[in-house]
Amino acid sequence: MKINITKDMARFIVNEKGRKVICIFEGTRDLFLDYARNNLKINPNCDATYPLLNTSKLHDKLYMPDKFVGTASCHPDDEFSVEKGKLLAYSRAKDKIHISFFKRADTYVNEIDNMIVDAVDTLNRYGSKIEANTQRRHAKIEEMIGIPEDEDAV
After folding, report:
1. Which ranges of 73-81 does DSSP label H, i.e. alpha helix?
2. What pLDDT was estimated at residue 98?
3. What gap in Å lies between CA 41 and CA 44, rounded to an integer?
4. What secondary structure letter does DSSP report for 42?
5. For residue 25, what are the β-bridge partners?
6. Can you say whether the dihedral through the CA atoms of 76, 79, 83, 84 is positive or negative?
7. 7: closest CA among 119, 99, 86?
8. Angle of the 82-145 helix axis to the 28-39 helix axis, nearest 10
9. What is the average per-residue pLDDT within 50-62?
10. Which of 57, 68, 120, 26 lies closest to 44 in space, CA to CA?
11. Beta bridge partners of 14
12. Cα 129 to Cα 82: distance, rounded to the nearest angstrom
């Protein structure tokens, strides 16, 4: 599950006088949603797909920032290099994206697991009630038509 983040997706701001390079990634929210759909095989807006699961708050938990920034500042005693600064700023911004992506993907998987457990518990509770009601109805019918409870008694 690799996230394809390249330098050509970044915008760089170089301040040679301030000896600083800034790397900005924008549009990461859509990148995350594409990643979630294609690699995790999920739809973050899955209310209609999984009606038994309460996903109304899930989308909020998956909110991905649309912009990540990495900076590199050169120490006054070091020689300033635009290329090294770009590489360092890019690496820092990319690390922030990866951390955010996987944190949200992990949150999504955990939330879905919890929802499935809750849905199964709900179905089991209803199943137990249905079984109990069915047994009561059968007993009532048997009583009404006079079927003995013990078939050996016939």
Report:
1. none
2. 86
3. 10
4. -
5. 10, 68
6. negative
7. 86
8. 50
9. 51
10. 57
11. 21
12. 70
Start-end of H helices in 1-154? 28-39, 58-61, 82-145
Question: Sheet harboring 10-15: ordered strands across?
Answer: 10-15, 20-26, 67-73
Higher pLDDT, 116 or 42: 116
Query: Does the pLDDT at position 51 exceed 90?
Result: no
Output the pLDDT for position 133: 83
Q: Buried b vs exposed e over 44-81: b needs ≥16 C-beta within 10 Å?
A: bebeeebeebebeebeeebebeeebbbebbbeeeeebe
Q: Which residue has the tokens 């900005």?
A: 24
Cα 137 from Cα 116, distance rounded (Å): 31
The token pair that represents 133 in the structure block = 């009601």
**Measured between alpha carbons, how far is 50 from 107 in angstroms, rounded to an integer?**
17
CA distance 20 to 81: 9
Which amino acid appears at position 33 of this protein? Answer: L
Q: Give this prediction's pTM.
A: 0.63
Q: Cα separation of 101 and 35, whole Å?
A: 9
Q: What is the pLDDT of residues 96-140, one digit of tens each?
A: 998 988 887 787 777 777 778 887 888 888 877 888 888 888 888
Rounded to 5 degrees, φ, ψ at 17 are -65, -40
Residues 54 and 109: beta-carbon distance below 8 Å = no
Return d(Cα 62, Cα 129) in angstroms, integer: 36
Enumerate the domain spans of the chain. 7-111
